[in-house]
Design goal:
By secondary structure, the chain is mainly α. The chain has one domain. Helices cover 73% and strands 3% of the residues. It is built from 13 helices and four strands. Strands 1-4 form a two-stranded antiparallel ribbon. A two-stranded antiparallel ribbon has the order 2-3. Strand 2 and strand 3 form a beta hairpin.
Length: 297
Amino acid sequence: MAVFLLVFPLISRDYFIDIAVLAGIYIILALGLNVVVGFTGLLNLGFVAFYAIGAYAYALLNTRLGLDFWTALPFSVGLTVIAGFLLAIPALRLRGDYLAIVTLGFGEIVRLILNNWDSLTRGPNGISGIAPPEIMAVSLGKLSHYYYLVLVFVFLTVITTKRVYSSRIGRAWVSIREDEIASSAMGINTTVYKLYAFAFGAFWAGLAGAVFAGKMQFVSPESFTFMESVLILCMVILGGLGSIAGVVIGSLILVLLPEVLREVQLYRMLALGAGLVLLMVFRPQGLFGGKGVFIRN
């Protein structure tokens, strides 16, 4: 698998490389949402807002202040983490459907601000002329070069989330998801760990947003609609809540399947929706979900 991933740009056309880059960005996003929804059990329907903040932060820092990708990246990610904390503070007083509604509202607020603040974000026209990342004065604007950058970020995300999941923080997240009252009774500060979950998930969304802006060299509010949040959530549910490998597979399926069904464009969303319905009926825990995925010796 590692050899195939490394030689993939050398044996594929730009069309397939572009799909692979997009799949990598969605994998980072889905793994970030998996921390909030899968590990901690907090339903977030506005996750795309953090994605948008990361993308626009890099776009503005690059086009307005002239900062390159690597200089702007810590600021973009840091701003997204701060946004995660700001959302978490009022939202964590709520649970279940009420929390979902608050996060949904947050996502729509961010999109409307981006769409209407013309003086800063140029509104519906978006921001163009964003510079791609560079390494040692070599631009990564070429798809095959950008593929390797995204691949490195995907591996970094997988390894980091896996390590955090196996840590004390990850155990606390899972215990909160299973029974918040029991977790609190055992001495776990549930509020603090929920803040950690929101901030940690927002971190990866901000990273994915900056990578997306660098790839497209253009951002606009149309790229960060509510349906993007739904798509990312479907990736997590399809793969299995809390399963890192499952989320990766779920992301690949939901990115690749529409491309495979492009020949029947009128019916591909119908086929995709029908497949999700069948999955929820016959395997509601997802492809790699289930009780065993959360139990470690």
